[in-house]
Design brief:
Helix 1 crosses helix 14 and helix 21 crosses helix 25. Helix 10 links the parallel strand 11 and strand 12. The relative contact order is 0.07. It is elongated and about 105 Å long. It has 28 helices and 26 strands. This is Glycosyltransferase involved in cell wall biosynthesis. It comes from Prosthecobacter vanneervenii.
Length: 712
């Protein structure tokens, strides 16, 4: 993904340091990072060394406005980012102004303080602050590096729903504990630039009340303010116990000189990098109750009220050494910064599916969502309910139901679809199954933006007469609309060719078969003579053929056990030898208990999950030659013609006579060709670049496996 950051300068500062760490981490994740900066600075070399592209706009003076903005527009249009991320107030405004001029990327604002210091910057500073408050609602996302900053700006008009907290990341490799020389007196240090917001006066007044300690102040900045503080220290009699040092490059060595770091800031502190760095070096901290200092330290006894030097002195006197590094490693590392940020910046994928019931297509959808955490996922189900809807919501995913009766659209459901699409602002629309694909087409036009659409077709198509009238109409409509999606993905070779013969654009075809989690589907202890038929009760599953075959087997092999599992199977009329278990949630265990797994489907089967799951469990399979069953099974198992109970029964009897309980070759085939990992990689690449040309192996399935499709 192309991400462009905008920042005023690349000089020494906490925000700039965080940008360097974040940009480097995003580059390592494979993102294309650019940094547009108004002025140069020493961090430019570090950014370029990390693999980021830097572009200095070169603001020549305070009043270089028109020329500066035109140069900024040119740079942004050259990059054409998918995400435009501002860093600090004026950069946030620039990102918003650039949005319509460089392809309408998602605009992300970065809030890096806990309250504004705009009053210190004159009329232009106050104007910038008011503009930020007024225009914040137009940003797509607002990332705050502190909880305090989020609360402060939300109270001033920033939209709370768009605001997310991502604390700074501390480089725990760079900031590590170092050996310290023992000292007779504890050393308390303050690190920060010379600025009134750091309230060094409170630190000095507290130091005067702690006679048995020594003190260190490290920082550069406002020379006049520094002179005032030096004069105050002299008047308090601290000269013999206080050392002043300018800003240092080797901060781990500085922290190693301290027993305790003190942060006495009066305002404006969001996430204090200094506190995080010191704690990563194993140095305990005491801080004023400003910004997120209390949250970072995690101990209220080490927090004092702003400006209360007596309370600070009490904290110093009560100080006891301890090692706070582990808290930084677990909660505030650079890895956590990159993880949290990339999750928020990730592409938004809106999945539109016919339903979230118990079928194989729905299960595959859930596996993909869970297995692709690098994307943000939202799901729209055209119909209500479904066990997977509950599972997704419990996993923290956004799931919407349009509650269409039997998938038939109503004005209320279309209006709800419009509202969800407009609110979600997805980067990719993924249609799942026929009606979901048609809904994705509607969503594309509701989005009012050129957003890539991907269709996923989940079945083979032997004869439209087998489909319901409404479904047949949708299938034909999709053929006419197949120019619109960026890709049409199929999970079956047969299905791809059959749909192409109906008019679906062959140039859009990409084959991505189903994948199986080999850690979930593992061999077990099969029960000899147990035959299972798993699948929902639907005409395409042809339970009549299975039941007839079971009767034949029972006559020739008395004692054979038959189990049926699936939604709606309770309605089947079966002989006493068949046990109906209905819908179950222990399918891996039940599958592994089988001697034979049977698929008796007569039509419509695309990529048969039950066959792949049984093969992953090393269970011998007997199946009808439908869809891509032959491709999935390869040289394993036994294939029979559809609708032939005698052939199905004989194949099962042959397996029983052979006394084969395990088929390790089946599991090996699934591991080699149909692992969930390979499928996740293909979908990740597709969602990242929907318009990229798919691999020839995926887009050109073998025509010899396709069956003719009657168009009547």
């Amino acid at each position: 993904m192309k991400i462009a950051f905008i920042i005023r300068d690349l000089g020494h500062g906490g925000a700039q340091r965080q940008l360097v760490l974040l940009a480097g981490g995003l580059v390592q994740q494979g993102h294309e990072i650019s940094v547009l900066h108004f002025y140069g600075g020493p961090f430019r070399d570090e950014l370029e060394s990390a693999g980021a592209n830097t572009v200095c706009i070169g603001k020549r003076s305070r009043w270089d406005l028109v020329g500066f903005f035109l140069r900024l527009v040119k740079a942004a249009r050259t990059i054409r980012p998918e995400v435009l991320h501002g860093y600090l107030a004026e950069s946030n405004l620039m990102a918003l102004f650039l949005k319509p001029l460089c392809g309408f990327p998602r605009v992300v604002w970065g809030v890096r303080d806990s309250q504004t210091d705009a009053h210190l910057w004159g009329v232009l500073g106050r104007l910038s602050f008011r503009l930020n408050c007024l225009l914040a609602r137009f940003a797509d996302l607002i990332i705050c590096n502190s909880q305090a900053g989020r609360d402060y700006y939300a109270a001033r008009g920033y939209p709370l729903k768009k605001m997310h907290g991502v604390p700074n990341g501390i480089d725990t490799e760079k900031f590590q504990p170092q050996q310290r020389k023992p000292s007779a007196l504890p050393t308390f240090g303050l690190v920060g630039r010379m600025n009134p917001m750091k309230d060094i006066a409170t630190f000095l007044r507290a130091a005067a009340l702690v006679p048995h300690a020594q003190f260190l102040i490290i920082g550069s900045g406002d020379a006049a303010y520094e002179q005032q503080m030096r004069s105050l220290a002299t008047s308090l009699g601290l000269d013999s116990r206080l050392i002043w040092m300018p800003a240092q490059k080797d901060m781990p060595a500085i922290y190693a000189r301290l027993d305790c770091l003190v942060n006495s800031s009066a305002f404006g502190e969001g996430f204090s990098n200094v506190i995080g760095e010191a704690m990563a070096c194993g140095v305990p901290c005491i801080a004023s109750d400003v910004g997120d200092s209390a949250w970072i330290i995690g101990d209220k006894s080490r927090i004092f009220p702003v400006g209360d030097h007596a309370a600070l002195a009490q904290c110093m006197r009560a100080f006891t050494p301890h090692d706070p590094r582990q808290r930084i490693v677990e909660e505030f590392s650079v890895a956590r910064l990159i993880q949290r940020t990339s999750r928020l910046l990730a592409k938004k994928v809106l999945w539109l599916t016919t339903g979230l019931g118990s079928g194989g297509a729905e299960m595959m959808l859930v596996q993909l969502i869970r297995g692709l955490p690098q994307f943000q996922h939202s799901v729209i189900s055209l119909t209500s309910g479904g066990k997977h809807a509950t599972a997704l919501r419990e996993g923290g995913y956004e799931v919407h139901s349009l509650d269409m009766p039997a998938g038939k659209p109503t004005l209320a459901s279309l209006w709800r679809l419009f509202r969800i699409v407009r609110q979600t602002k997805a980067d990719v629309l993924m249609g799942w199954m026929y009606h979901g694909c048609f809904a994705a087409v509607l969503a594309r036009f509701m989005r009012f933006k050129s957003v890539p659409v991907i269709w996923n077709v989940r079945q083979s198509l032997y004869d439209l007469k087998h489909e319901k009238r409404g479904s047949a109409l949708v299938i034909r409509a999709l053929a006419s609309l197949s120019w619109l999606p960026a890709r049409i993905t199929y999970n079956t070779q047969t299905g791809a060719r059959q749909h192409e013969s109906l008019g679906y654009r062959a140039s859009k075809t990409q084959l991505i078969p189903n994948g199986f989690d080999l850690a979930k589907w593992q061999p077990g202890t099969p029960i000899p003579g147990r035959i299972g038929r798993f699948g929902r009760n639907a005409p395409m599953k042809d339970y009549a053929t299975f039941i007839t075959a079971a009767k034949i087997i029972a006559e020739k092999k008395p004692g054979t056990e038959f189990i049926v599992v699936g939604a709606g199977t309770e309605e089947l009329q079966v002989p006493a030898c068949i046990q109906i278990l209905g819908e179950r949630h222990d399918l891996p265990e039940l599958t592994a208990s089988l001697n034979i797994a049977v698929s008796s489907s007569a039509f419509g089967e695309g990529f048969p999950n039950v066959i792949g799951e049984a093969m992953a469990c090393s269970v011998p399979v007997v199946a009808t030659d439908i869809g891509d069953t032959r491709w999935v099974m390869g040289d394993t198992g036994r294939l029979v013609p559809p609708g032939d109970p005698a052939a199905l029964a004989q194949a099962c009897i042959d397996v029983l006579d052979s006394a084969i309980l395990h088929d390790p070759n089946s599991r090996a085939r699934i591991a080699q060709h149909f692992s969930i990992e390979s499928v996740l990689q293909k979908f990740a690449a597709l969602l990242d670049s929907p318009h990229a040309v798919s691999p020839a192996a995926d887009s050109s399935p073998s025509p010899s496996l396709a069956s003719p499709l009657p168009h009547s």
